[in-house]
Design goal:
alpha/beta, globular, 12 strands, seven-stranded parallel β-sheet, 34% helix
């Protein structure tokens, strides 16, 4: 089988540069294009040089439509508005779309699900193997423990992250809610301030920290009578997300159109 041709969206950013480097290090993959916001001063820059690899003669462009037919898949860690536009393009062209973007609204998710009727989309709040194993464990523990164990999710990221709670925290919250057989939307507490009263039984709480250059840290706490169980994952390098996304792209090749998750990619749906 020929090498899989990938477009990296947001190629001038930290995650985009990491993806360019990861593609260069992965057998069976080739960088077919590098996208960036058309207003970016990096337009025209060499993607390899930006990634610290030396020139690879793939220039950053803002013309997504002009690239899409030259590739097999788009790897996308950008912002919701850009991801939605790319989902439409990928759907029309029948290309694989790997989405690591977070911060989507319910309406955004509906549009992505619609696009997945015509394309293979793998979407996850976190692409790392470790975090998805953590989510599977969270679901299992939440299902096993009774409601006397309160569930709290703590996350910390670098000071440039723009959405909160993180996509990973919400991924873990959904896993906990599925384990408990409840709807996260109606049992989610995103902030506490002032006289909040006692904790409502069955709620899943979220706490958000921002600072420094922290790549990502997440802890799911099960606090019961006289004991507590903490499940924790700490990321120290963005490369783990890049490797996961590339693994997802290779897995998605040849799959029927549909909306998939990293749980599907890793075979964890029945865990």
């Amino acid at each position: 089988m020929s090498d899989m041709r990938l477009i990296v969206a947001g190629a001038g950013g930290r995650m985009g540069r990491t993806l360019v480097k990861a593609i260069a290090e992965t057998k069976g993959l080739v960088l077919a294009g590098a996208l960036e916001d058309a207003r970016s001063p990096l337009i025209g820059s060499d993607a390899g040089t930006l990634a610290g690899l030396g020139e690879n003669h793939v220039k950053l462009t803002g013309d997504a439509a002009g690239l899409i037919d030259k590739a097999d898949a788009v790897i996308d860690f950008t912002i919701p508005v850009a991801s939605l536009a790319l989902a439409g393009l990928a759907a029309r062209a029948g290309k694989v779309h790997i989405i690591g973007t977070t911060g989507f609204s319910a309406a955004d998710d509906a549009r992505i699900a619609e696009a997945a009727k015509s394309a293979v989309i793998v979407k996850s709040g976190n692409m790392s193997l470790g975090v998805n194993l953590l989510a599977a464990l969270t679901k299992r523990v939440a299902k096993t423990l009774d409601s006397s164990f309160d569930i709290e999710i703590l996350e910390m990221h670098h000071n440039q992250k723009i959405d909160a709670p993180s996509g990973t925290a919400l991924l873990l919250g959904r896993a906990a809610a599925e384990g408990r057989g409840i709807d996260l939307a109606t049992h989610s507490v995103r902030s506490r301030d002032g006289h909040t009263g006692a904790r409502n039984p069955g709620d899943i709480g979220f706490a958000t920290l921002r600072g420094g250059t922290v790549v990502g840290e997440h802890t799911v706490m099960f606090a019961g009578p006289d004991e507590r169980i903490d499940l924790t994952h700490k990321a120290t390098d963005r490369m783990i997300f890049a490797r996961g996304a590339l693994h997802a792209a290779l897995w998605a090749r040849g799959k029927p159109p549909g909306l998939y998750s990293m749980m599907d990619v890793l075979g964890l749906t029945d865990f």
